[in-house]
């Protein structure tokens, strides 16, 4: 990688991001840092200096540590307006541009474009690629241009021109062919971003961060940076889906892998792909008890009589090769003899004697009841993928591959406590005006189902110093902290002030029922930090908030992907609801007379009625945009049974 002191670099981030949902694309998280940070790391070593063209979230962009230049031509004219702004302010003879949503920028882009521009005595050089059997694809947004040509571009924009390749028609431009088409790939949609983010193998890795540039991998984004990617972000009226997205984008997986014995791997998160070293099954074998034969021996319109020459048992292969008109009796799992390609079940044949059977016409087709070697799993293929929560069937799969020890993520450590002077623990006398603390037990149960290492810190009284001490202790001993109570607007709710003083924490009013108040962020104590989930105090609201906000984040920290699965059911009765917020109503799922799934509400849906949660076997999810539900309408349902 060679630095050219006559070139300035410009990252184009001034668009509206319409295909990404009207967000600032370059600020979207990708492999642990904003997309634009990857572009910055690749361009910075190639040029004398670098700047960013952006038109919104300017404070966030300034956090990249480089100049930020907005468009000077109004109206979001696209990359050309950004290029114009860069050419106006460029302090070097040449300007190199690249878009913020292309994290695969070649590390020799500046060198190759500059060499071609000099060789051809051109005004502008741009990248192009050609895939086999296809035409050359130009990439004019990856261009090197003489800064002195800014008046030509400004005149083109003033005349209404907007095409990236239209402004230099009268100039001398040279096309530079690059081999790697993926290096110029734009990530335009959220689906593309998530797919590439998951598939680390396809991402060209960069070297170390250039001197003087920010180390984004070591400086996680702030909550404000993540939230700035949302259009119309309002912490006092935040839709459920936006809160979920901010949390998901903010948390990062823990590090740490350990080898555990196979039986101890149940419920743990697989830390690496398990690659099969053998075919499963190892040999072609019989799917049932019967007779192995050659399909070519079967008569299509008449009975077929074959001579039985041997018996093959599972685990005891034989080297007998049947000839025409012969077959072998075989048991389920027995290795198919050479030359045999089909198995007829024993109940389909007539035994003429101990050494002869007759098969009626059409009993089987060639190839029936034969399991092929590698049919379940071929050697060299992944048996289980990283991130999978290991279930009983997975233990069997691993055992079939002779895997004795399994690489798993270390367990996530989660501390939790309840807040409030009115709370009493089991075994204590219940003073007037007090209640027994139920939230710690429901939180314990939900964390236990996730497979976390749990630290129960009991009840913390309504006192700022007590809360701070508890949060610091939790932070120094856990990866995540879950609290209940103290995040609303009550006079004795000191949690907000303490949380905000200890770290990067935001307080939301979610557009949902039950469970409107929620605190989320990251706090630090000494050299330790932990993610914090401040749940409301009402018992049902605690469970709803945990399932729909904390659960997914904790699983993400564990390196697991186990999204909530909603199923459809018919509502047994009418449900009143106003559009504009998400509602979670406790329900009982059953089968109607016609066998279809049907759900009815448990009755009063107050957020303090824990009995309704205990009676329910599911939760009816009424989304933000939904209105009232009529009897017979289909609704989304979250089943409690089997919920991790």
Automatic annotation (TrEMBL):
Its EC number is 2.7.7.77. Pathway: Cofactor biosynthesis; molybdopterin biosynthesis. Signal peptide: none annotated. The keyword Transferase applies. Keywords: Cytoplasm, GTP-binding, Magnesium, Membrane, Metal-binding, Molybdenum cofactor biosynthesis, Nucleotide-binding, Nucleotidyltransferase, Transferase, Transmembrane, Transmembrane helix. It is an enzyme of class 2 (transferase). Residues 415-556 form the MoaB/Mog domain. It comes from the Bacteria. It is found in: Cytoplasm. Mg(2+) binds at residue 101. It holds the Pfam family NTP_transf_3. Gene3D superfamilies: MoaB/Mog-like domain, MoeA, C-terminal, domain IV, Molybdopterin biosynthesis moea protein, domain 2, Molybdopterin biosynthesis moea protein, domain 3, Spore Coat Polysaccharide Biosynthesis Protein SpsA, Chain A. One of its GO terms (molecular function) is molybdenum cofactor guanylyltransferase activity. Belongs to the MoeA family. HAMAP family: MobA. Monomer. This is Molybdenum cofactor guanylyltransferase. The gene is mobA.
